[in-house]
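Issue 218. Parser rejects a valid record. Input:
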Amino acid sequence: VNAKRNGHNEDDVAFFCKVCYLYMSLQKYIRTSVYDTAEYAFPYTDEQIKAVDGVEYSGAFGEPRATHIHEGVDLATGSGNYIEIHAIHDGVVRGAGNAGDCWDCNSVDIDHGDGTYARYLHCNEVMVSLGQHVSKGDVIATTGGKNGAGAEAYPVHLHLEFGHGDVKSARSDTDALTLFNGLAGIPVGTLLNGE
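Output the parser choked on:
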């Protein structure tokens, strides 16, 4: 609108529009973490990871627990570090808080529309609503330690599940760490430092 007033001609305006279009086309490939891949974004940015002095991989997929098999991976951010969680993939929110398809633990359930879904459990604060479309990297919640009753019952961490099928009824069937760059097979207790 102000291009001519600011000393720019029509070619400058056309070039600017092309750059904006290119940026929007490439935005899905922009990485905010060394653990991102072209398809999946790590739920925390490198900046966030460094701000909390690292995120600990504190619970493995398939790990036997007292009453069940652990169906996700736990990423601990440390006491009081209620940092923002980012969507790992594009999709539609099918559960938020303890509403919709969410079954426990103040969670967010996202249907990716390609036969996969992700669940983010134990959130401190949910920042999306049912039916909302989210893009990979969008902020959806903050990390917490809440149980199904909404009480702070666990150390502050993200329990992340990934699976195939209907988010309403499917059980997590994939180790979520395998979605991210360089994290497949790392031992529990590893401190991720975003480097």
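Fixed in the parser; the record now loads. Helices lie at 10-26, 46-51.
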